[in-house]
Amino acid sequence: ERAYIITDRFVYKPGEDLWFKGFVVSSGEEPNKPKSEDFFIKLLNSKGEEIISRRYPVMGNQTSGRLLIPRSFIPGRYWLVAYTGWMKNQCAYEAFRKEILISKYYDKRFLVEPFYDKDTYHAGDTLNVRIRILDQTGKPIPEVGFEYTLGSFDHREIKGSGNTDTEGFSTISCVIPESEQILMLTVDIKSRKLSGDYTLIIPAVT
Fold it and tell me: Phi first, then psi: what are they for 42, rounded to 5°?
């Protein structure tokens, strides 16, 4: 089995909630039916010391929840580590790791709202997704340039760029690649007023 995590963002302030979505992929004849019923998440500091440990139920091959970043946390780099009950039998280095940053200051955040032209995509289908980029208050961000990538956790196969219109909308079109893993669309903005990235799950059959 393999465990993966997507978080709502990369940078957090002490006292904020970290929202996440976890995925489990299994090898064998039924990759969408994991053997495990438990999903474990640990938060480690830069020294590798365990700060938070939680267990969540796996429904299908997914789980979701939140972690509260304690107000007493010292700003710095931390690591989220995820694994399933079945993965306890595997090498510890196969656990999923994601770096996050805890800081008292960070750049303005943004959200990406997708509007897909299909409910489900298969390999070879053309993805036409109309996105709207919003600030943290829900207001559209007009006329901002962005770059995007589409691919799996391990490999980003498609890259491109675009600009939002006066109402914060833009359209991304590309062909869905073949993949055995969950496909993601990541939108990255780097400008004087805004910086960061936002990841969406593509509703594709893998």
Answer: -125, 145
For 148, half-sphere exposure in the C-beta direction (CA atoms, 13 angstrom radius) is 23
CA 144, 150, 153, 156: dihedral to nearest 10 degrees?
-100
Report the pLDDT averaged over residues 1-14.
Answer: 85
Residue 137: both structure tokens together = 């208050």
Beta strands in the chain (DSSP E): 2-7, 11-12, 17-25, 38-44, 50-57, 62-68, 76-84, 96-102, 110-116, 126-135, 145-151, 156-163, 169-175, 184-190, 195-201
Pairing state of beta strands 145-151 and 184-190? antiparallel
Predicted confidence (pLDDT) at residue 135 exceeds the cutoff of 70: yes
Candidates 3, 151, 152, 1; CA nearest to 63 is: 3
Report the chain's C-alpha Rg in angstroms.
18
Strand-pair category, 62-68 with 156-163: unpaired
CA–CA distance, 48 with 21 (Å, rounded to integer): 23
Give the Cα separation of 156 and 174 in Å (integer).
Answer: 13
**In the prediction, which pLDDT does 108 show?**
59
Per-residue model confidence (pLDDT) at position 25: 82
- Quickly list DSSP for 20-64: EEEEEE--SS-TTS-S-SEEEEEEE-TT--EEEEEEEE-BTTEEE
